[in-house]
Amino acid sequence: MARRGGDDRTLDLLAWQPPEPQRYAEERVRTATLRDRISRAVSETLKDCEQTRADVARAMGEWLGEDVSENMLNAYASQGREEHTIPYLRLLALVQVTGDTRLLQLGAELFDTTVIENRLKPFIEIGMRFDRRNRAVAIAQEEDREIDVAIRTIRKGARQ
Asked: Which end of the chain is less enclosed by CB atoms within 10 A, N or C?
């Protein structure tokens, strides 16, 4: 729906584009193994964070109610420390403290899914309803075609 000339209060519905999922630049997290990719992602999140690693570790510990040291955070971010892959609960704490949902998206993409903000759910639900309606219409149209063929066949047989 195009805006009328001079109307700055009406949205152009066709111009709206959904936001892209937050994800790491591929070249920044490309590695040979998933374990290394996760370590690299943790490292990227910490690099992009405005807080110091010590502050992030302290805030994670407060959120979890347990001790998280800066050294442990450094180990999670190091590809050379294979025995220190970040546990899921701590990964969630890191997302909570940094606000960086790219860590969640990294995992979601393994299962062909996307992490979205809750505010976008209504748009997805509308899209799902639209798709469901389109499938129902297609099925009804196919049924109508089959009924028409059956009626023609019956009429043709009745004439003979």
From this structure: C
